[in-house]
Amino acid sequence: MTNPAEVTNEETHKTQADPETAERFIAEKRIGERIRRLRLKKSMGLVELGKHTGLSASFLSQLETGRVVPTLRNLARIAMVFSKDLSYFFETEPTAMFRIHRQKDRVRLPQTGVEPPTYFFESLGYMVPDRHMDPYFAEFVPLARTPEPKAHMHPGYEFMYVLEGELELRHGDQETTLEPGDAVYFDSGTPHSYQCAGKAATKVIIVTMHQPPAALPMRAVSAPTTTRSMPASLRAVGTEEKPTGNF
Question: What pLDDT is stored for residue 187 in this prediction?
Fold first, then answer.
């Protein structure tokens, strides 16, 4: 049973830290917001939380709005109600990923290893670190002389959506022509190639999905690898990884 006098002392307790420093710390950790989210997730009112913690509803309201600085004992009581460790209120909250890639900031690069290049591309995800997929905008150009398309392969999967024009796609022993609005999803571990199939440029959105190769048995001798499975597709422009021009 909580002693009312003890609770009163808890509510009126002043931290010994500099007030401005304490307020800044509370604001950075958003402790009040975390308490409120926990409470609302449980559909619990301030009065009910007060009954569980021995703290008044008015005091809890001030905690949630950041008007008072909580003591560790108060936070421990609240944490116990929601089955959380005290450290929950001081851990850095993860930041949601959100990156905008403006058209004016993107870099247009040619296909590598082929002269003249059959397409040009722009990375749509170069600002995202440790990404699990690589999106591109690609423009396949019509050529006066149509060379044999250069096939390539890499671990993972690939998705393509045709915006304009016609695209000839070869995947293994399959060959097809994609038109505007057509989409294809395929295993990029199979040799594949593509080229413009019409007289006008073909514009395509391409997304490559990373997938590490299957682990080799311990007795097998493996070749040196990089820190991340690295398909033949372009990595972030401006990072240490060099673009290859092959998706």
Answer: 94
> With contact defined as beta carbons under 8 Å apart, do 137 and 203 qualify?
yes
In 3-state terms, what secondary structure has residue 186? Answer: strand
pLDDT at 19: 55
Q: Domains plus CATH for the chain?
A: 4-89 (1.10.260.40), 95-247 (2.60.120.10)
Beta strands 192-196 and 167-171 are antiparallel
Rg of the chain over Cα atoms, rounded to whole angstroms, equals: 29
* 6 burial type by CB count under 10 A (0-12 exposed, 13-18 middle, 19+ buried): exposed
Cβ neighbour number for residue 92 with a 10 Å cutoff: 7
Task: Tally Cβ neighbours within 10 Å of residue 233.
Answer: 25
Could you give the percent of the chain with pLDDT greater than 70?
Answer: 72
Closest of 126, 168, 116 to residue 147, by C-alpha: 116
DSSP letters, 33-80, are HHHHHHHHHTT--HHHHHHHHT--HHHHHHHHTTSSPPPHHHHHHHHH
235 is written with which tokens?
């990595």
pTM tops 0.70: no
Q: Compute the half-sphere exposure of residue 190: CA atoms within 13 Å on the CB side of its CA.
A: 12
Q: Is 50 exceeded by the pLDDT of residue 170?
A: yes
Integer Cα distance of 245 and 247 in angstroms: 7
